[in-house]
Amino acid sequence: MARKDKLREHYNSVLETKQLWIGTIKKVIDTTRNGNMLVHIPEITGSDETDDALFNCQWSSPFAGATELGANTDDADPTAAQTSYGMWMRPPDPGTQVIVGIVFKNAKKIPVIISCLFHSLRNSMVPGIPAGQTTNGLPDAVTEVNLNSDPSNFDMEYEYKGTKTVPKSSKRPQHPLADNLFHQGLADDFVRGQSTSGARREDISEVFGILTPGSRQDGNPKARNPGHQFVMDDNDNNNLIRLRTGQGMQILLNDTNDIIYIVNKKGTGYIEIDGEGNIDIFGKGSYNVRTMGDLNLRADQNVNIEAGQDINIKAANNSPHPLDEGRGLGGIVEEVDLAMADPQAGPLFVAALTKGTVNIEGYKDVNIKGQNLEFSAQPSPFLKLTGTQGKILLNSAGETKIKSQNIIGQADGRVVMGNPIPGKINLVTGPLGTLTATSTNTVVQGMAKLNLEGAMVDIAPEAFTPVLEFPELKVSDYIGTKFKPMTLFGFDIIPLPVPLPEQPGKQVQGKTLTRMIFPPGSPQGVPKWEGMINKGVKTILSRVPQPEPSTSKKDKPFKGGFK
């Protein structure tokens, strides 16, 4: 027997003398893709770390399996194939200590990795990558301490001052997750951004969770990008469940601060629900909603809608598509007018598309204000020739007053199918009513004929009776507005020298001069138009979600909140 085979036989015989061994992973490359690893067990092989001295150990899981294999040989039948399931944990990196056990499989003794051991004093990042003191003095997400720097303190402790959390620990390198928290506006937010959920926070740890190793960095097999985390923290100061990706996208359920928070990795969109029932939705892009049924919005108090540019409301009358049975497809009509004029299918569309009304009702008043108001009643080309559409009706139970620089009324008539409709202007009062037209100069002219009819017609000079002037609009006639600070996506100008004493905050209209400068290249902004005079920008909204979510917490939906 060759010396190498004798040595392997000796190692295997020693392996069988105990059920559990402590080993160190040396290689994790596995062509079987079952997670097998080569492990060095010094208690058996001493300092020999050659491949012949390593044990090929199987990777285990707390839960794993597959359905039984049947007799069906059809390779296209999904019910004939097995269904695998379970918990798959990727193999740890070389250098990790593991517990190796001996199991029997087909009368053969096989070494199996049944658990892993944390490196001594190196578990502070698990599972939530908590904040600590960085080497530049800022509280931020940090890595493990560098053992080569001879550190004296491996623990992560925190001081809680009201709503502020202050890390108390040895300085550590800043973790890459800190960059994402900075751009999300959460760098100093220990509710939504920074974490204290680490295994070295207290003597008897109250945190439970998983932190993945992260993807491998190109060109450096020993370095990894940030890993994903699943955290369940039972600490009273930080009682929460957090699911966060390596680049910062997260879902947070925080019992301590009574919020639910969801954010993308750049902080350009988030949703927050707090304990008072306030729901904030913020998006740097568009916010789009579509439903195949009704969309219902109700506020028991006020509904405030404000657009920085235009507001467009349209009842399109292009749904349901008459050929979409049962609304199963959710189809809509591409072009209503052309569909109605279709010589073959037109009657189907005419019968189905009978909506398109915009209803606006105010129990007390309906006020419409604008620099220009235009009311147009224009029927579709299909209905225009019938002469039955295109009406404007003003109904008033009381007085109807019109005041303008000029009032021009013109009735042109209309060409319709059949006989044309002549243009008419009728001014009619009740049996006891009076029709009065007063001006400095009055001209009544009939191009063909002018009729003045009545039981009695008087044509004579009469004393001038002035018309009552309408009051001009006052400030109180407009929708009420408030001045609110508006957080921007730009950060405060970084002061020198660096490193900074703290992370720069977001720029805020009404609080700091922003980078919206004039003229281009000027070192100063234009405070008058940035909200600096009134400490904010004018808005009708009672609550404004901001790029930094904590800012909007100061706004209440109505006075007093819930009692």
Strand/helix succession: HEEHEEEEEEEEEHEEEEEEEEEHHHEEEE
Q: Give the percentage of residues in beta strands.
A: 15-25%
- How far apart lie the N and C ends? 87 Å
How would you characterize the largest beta sheet?
A: 7 strands, antiparallel
Q: Strands of the largest sheet, in order across it?
A: 12-15-16-17-18-19-20
Total number of β-strand segments? Answer: 24
Average pLDDT rating: 85
Query: Whole-number radius of gyration?
Result: 39 Å
Instruction: Indicate the percent of residues in helices.
Output: under 10%
Uncertain regions spanning at least 5 consecutive residues: 559-563
- Give the helix tally: 6
Structural class: mainly beta
How would the global form be characterised? elongated
Question: Can you walk me through this structure?
Answer:
By secondary structure, the chain is mainly β. Among the domains are: 97 residues, OB fold (Dihydrolipoamide Acetyltransferase, E2P) (Beta Barrel), CATH 2.40.50; 153 residues, no CATH class; 39 residues, no CATH class; 52 residues, no CATH class. The strands form 8 sheets. A 7-stranded antiparallel sheet has the order 12-15-16-17-18-19-20, with no helix packed on it. It is elongated, with a radius of gyration of 39 Å. The C terminus is likely disordered.
